[in-house]
Amino acid sequence: MNISWSECLRFIPLLLQLTTVSTLESFEVLGPADPVVAVPGEDVVLPCYLKPNISAMDLSVEWFRVQTKNPLVHLYQDHEDRNENQIPSYRGRTSLFPEELNNGNTSLKVKNVRLSDSGEYKCFVQSAEWYDDYSINVQIKAIGTHPVISNEGYKEGGISLVCESKGWYPQPQVVWMDSEGHNLPAEHTETHRDSMDLFIVRRRVIVQETETNRFTCQVLQRDLKEMKETMTEIPGELHIFSINSSMETRRVRNVICFCIVLICVLIHLYESVSTLMIVL
Ligand SMILES: *[C@@H]1O[C@H](CO)[C@@H](O)[C@H](O)[C@H]1NC(C)=O
Ligand SMILES: *[C@@H]1O[C@H](CO)[C@@H](O)[C@H](O)[C@H]1NC(C)=O
Fold first, then answer.
1. Host domain of residue 78
2. Is residue 36 part of a domain?
3. What are the DSSP calls for 218-241, one per residue?
C-alpha cells in the first residue's frame, strides 16, 4: 500500500476531531457490587473500570478512602503517579495497571494487605469535562489454623484440655463439644493478637470420663462461614491413672494429717502428765 504524506496529513484533523470527541464523551465509573475480600499479607486488586471503555491514559484517576481526613490512596494525573500526599501506610504498596489504562481499566492493586486496609474506597475518574466515581468496600478475611488440643492432665474436677487456633480475622468463637455434639461448659475464651494483629484464641475445658472419651474443639467465624475443628480422644487408662493418682495423694494427705494429730495429742498428754507429776 502506498500512502503519500499529503494523504496522511489529511487524516490528522480527522484524528484530532475523534480524540476531542472521545474526551468530551461522558463515561460511567463502575466496579464490583459485592465487597472485595482481602487476605492479610497477600495482594488484592480493587476493580474499577470505565463504561464505555474509553482510554483513561489522559484522565485523572484518584483512589481515596472514605471518611478519612487526608484520604489519598493513589493518584494518577498528567500521565504519571503523583503520590506525594498519599496516606503513609500505603507508601510503596499501590499501583494501577499501566497497560490496562488504555482499555478504561482503572483498577488498583494493593500489595501486602494490612488490617487497616479494610473499609470503603472511592475510585474517582475525571476528564476535563466530566467525572464519575464508584465506591468499593474492602473486607479483611483471615482463616486461621486447625485447632490444636493439648492435654494438661488431671485438674480438680477432671481432665483439663486446652484448644488453641491462630491467624483469624475477624475474631472467631471457640466451642467445646462432647462426642454427641452437645456444648460443654468451658472457661471463657482467651484472645491474643499476633504480629499482624490477627486473633489467637485459646479455650480450656475440664472434662469427665464419658463412654467414648472423645471431645471436639470447634473454632468458627460465622460472618466468613468458616469452621475448623479437631477431635481428641483421651486414653481411658490415662483418665483412670489420673483419678488413681489423685486418690493416692488424698490417702497420703490423710496419713500425714493423722500423724500430726497423733503427735499433738501425745505432746499434750506428756505435758499433762508432767504437770500432774509436779503437782504431786
Ligand atoms: C472495549 O470493549 C470492547 C467490547 O468488549 C472490546 O472489543 C474493545 O477491545 C475494548 N476497547 C478497548 C480500548 O479496550
Ligand atoms: C483490569 O485489569 C486487571 C489486571 O490486569 C484485571 O485483573 C481485571 O480483570 C481488569 N478488569 C477489567 C474490567 O478488564
1. 26-140
2. yes
3. EEEETTTTEEEEEEEE--HHHHHH
